[in-house]
Specification:
By secondary structure, the chain is of the alpha+beta class. Helix content is about 40%, strand content about 15%. The longest helix is centred in the middle third of the chain and has 17 residues. The termini are far apart.
């Protein structure tokens, strides 16, 4: 195997995410260890070096063409993650200081020096037992960032992000105020598209359910009024514009319940960005102003379209 392939094997064994097993990250490991193609891993060193030195080393010895202005890419894609995993350490200087340096930790140096020897397996096991892997670390962080939300009395979690932050507000803030006693029949998640999907109830109401991506972000049903609320959570795309209304109408030709179309925004600034696109006879709800709504013309506020 080439040194790049061997470096990738080491990173894979250390349970590094796939993005941190690319050629750039492998070159970082080799540069930090000062290993040429023909140099044995046992001869690895851990002198203090700059990202500039990593770039020069890679271009000179491994046929790469990294530009000097790619230092920030190296920092974000490799150095940051390798430091999190205790592969490398810095010298404590300010990051904008010309004296800022990195090096392999002594523990990492000892581990890679054993690669290809009968000591490798034991050294690897010891390292993994004493350090949380990046895969574990980042999975834990993603889990911690998830947003708890109660839907129809059941606890769920949304993935992090503005879109789901707004969906959480729709369910927890909009629904109690403007869709009292409603049931959530559908809501997606940015990673789990059909987080809640009461397909039986939707079909009973006359929905023609085909592709989930045609569904509005949140569908609420108020049984006592026989009203359906179609709510779009808009942070960057997808307001209740005429084309979107037409798509939902085509999907709900068999629905007899009253239909209410709502576009939800996190703040007034985002609403202004989309205000000229919104269809008439629809509602606007802004999470920053949860007690108020904007009605786009019509003979009644917050009622089904005629």
């Amino acid at each position: 195997m080439s040194k790049i392939d061997e470096a990738k094997e080491i990173l894979n064994a250390l349970q590094v995410p796939a993005k941190q097993q690319n050629a750039m990250c492998c070159c970082v490991l080799l540069a930090m260890a000062n290993l040429l193609e023909g140099t044995a891993w046992a001869n690895a060193t851990n002198s203090w070096i700059r990202i500039h030195d990593v770039i020069v080393f890679s271009n000179s010895n491994y046929g790469t063409t990294y530009a000097e202005n790619s230092r920030e890419t190296f920092r974000k894609q490799a150095m940051h993650h390798f430091r999190n995993a205790a592969f490398i350490e810095d010298n404590g200087k300010a990051t904008n200081s010309p004296n800022y340096r990195y090096r392999l930790t002594d523990e990492m140096l000892g581990l890679i020096q054993s690669f290809g020897t009968d000591k490798w397996a034991d050294k690897l096991t010891a390292f993994l037992e004493s350090h949380e892997t990046l895969v574990q670390m980042y999975a834990s962080k993603r889990s911690m960032r998830k947003m708890p939300v109660k839907i129809n009395g059941t606890d769920f979690t949304f993935s992090p992000g503005k879109h789901n932050q707004l969906q959480k507000a729709i369910i927890e803030e909009f629904a109690p105020r403007f869709a009292t006693n409603s049931e959530c029949l559908y809501v997606g998640d940015t990673t789990e598209k059909d987080l809640v999907k009461n397909e039986k109830k939707l079909r009973e109401l006359g929905f023609d359910i085909t592709l989930h991506d045609k569904m509005p972000d949140v569908v609420l049903y108020c049984d006592d009024k026989k009203w359906l609320y179609f709510v779009e959570s808009v942070t960057s795309v997808g307001p209740m514009e005429p084309k979107r209304i037409k798509e939902i109408e085509e999907m709900t030709t068999g629905v007899t319940a009253g239909k209410i179309y709502v576009t939800a925004f996190l703040d007034f600034k985002t609403f202004k960005k989309f205000s000229e696109m919104l269809a008439w006879e629809t509602e606007v709800w802004i999470a920053d102003m949860p007690d108020h709504m904007i009605h786009l013309n019509g003979d009644k506020f917050l009622g089904p379209r005629k």
